[in-house]
Design goal:
Elements (H helix, E strand, L loop, with lengths): L5 E5 L3 H12 L3 E6 L5 H9 L3 E4 L4 H4 L4 E4 L8 H8 L3 E3 L1 H6 L5 E6 L4 H12 L5 E5 L5 H7 L4 E5 L2 H4 L9 E4 L14 H8 L11 E5 L3 H9 L5 E5 L8 E5 L2 E6 L2 E6 L8 H16 L4 H10 L8 E6 L2 E5 L6 H10 L4 E5 L12 H7 E7 L4 H7 L5 E5 L2 H11 L5 E4 L12 H13 L2
Helix pairs in contact: 1-7, 6-11, 6-12, 16-17
Length: 446
Amino acid sequence: MKQNKKIVVLGAGESGIGTALLAQAKGYDVFVSDKGTIKENYKQSLIDNNVTFEEQQHTESKILDADVVMKSPGIPDKAPLVKQLRENGTQVISEIEFASEFTNATCVAITGSNGKTTTARLTHFILEKELEVGLGGNIGDSFALQVLQKDAPNYVLEISSFQLDDCYAFNPKIAIITNITPDHLDRYDYKLENYVASKFRIVQNHTENDVLIYDADDEILNEYINTHDIKSTLIPFSLVKTFKNGAYLSDNNLTITLENNTFSMPTKDLALNGNHNIKNAMAAATVASLLKIRKQTIRESLENFQGVEHRLENVLKINKVQYINDSKATNVNATYYALESMEAPTVWIVGGVDKGNNYKELFPFVNEKVKAIICLGKDNEKLKENFSGMVDILVETEYMSEAVKIAYKIAEAGDNVLLSPACASFDLFENYEDRGRQFKASVRNL
């Protein structure tokens, strides 16, 4: 990509602003366009750096004149303007693609349907004890801005399928795919194979000198790896299999063997509970082992990591009832892990915008562990159809404060109250963070 080209940045969020400032510094002619209102701090940043921008509109003549377009991952390919750009042969890329061109850092890139945020934060938590490392992508500060301001020698990047769709040359030294379950299929013509192919773009430029760490218990991942020419060196992790090179369970110990070098620690010492978190720990510790972090550092980090907000987050214990915020569970698979990890009778708060959910895999846990269901959504018919025969109490509300008050009345000493919606949040909340914070505020107001 030559300099002095015209770059248009579509969407002035965290990734857009970072890209604009990096592009400006690298000699590009930059224009930022956002169909909504740009946040004041972002707007000020553009003004301070003399970057031309517009908000609440897209001026097509200026956008279609671009040599390259950085598209916010939230803008779908089906958007007429994006379609037109592609038809014109204009290169449409993601922030990850753009920023990676200007750094020689070792990148650890993490994708998957669930667990990628926890895995990314945990990996960064371990690595930062001994390495200079940035955290970016879907979390942390803009990757592009970090490359501009203080280019670290290492990065941990959480990357969504939407970001990967617009990556072409990006090549992370270490890639992790945590798992793949049907999600966001509306963006992939409702074809699972399209979504899976999108996730595997993370290794599209890999050679045998690069590493793919993946869940060997995931049938979708196994099938793709077995039927496609993946060039990466494969390092699997599993709860039920063992490997010469990989991570696995051995006598309730998390064990990682890499080229005859073994790391091991009891799973009971992990700070995070649940089988899904054992897998997240396996992936993160494998990265740390590859990057030569000391075993003692890895062990202490896994013992002390405090987890991610809105992911199985213990909020408060009131009258011996534990309130748990799992608002980040926006699909059935994430809620599966949450219910699996419950070890006490549970009042389950569920609901929101259904993404074509199939709730059958939750039935055994609901039968075994859930004593009452509180449906928190505008349309709860599908939830009622699936679960009304399994619990004695099923109630509906559109208010978080009311959902928590109902749960407070139902729950008894020793129970859990779990917010794990299995659905998107946009019917009643701004996003899953807003939903989780309202839950926590309502619990604290009891």
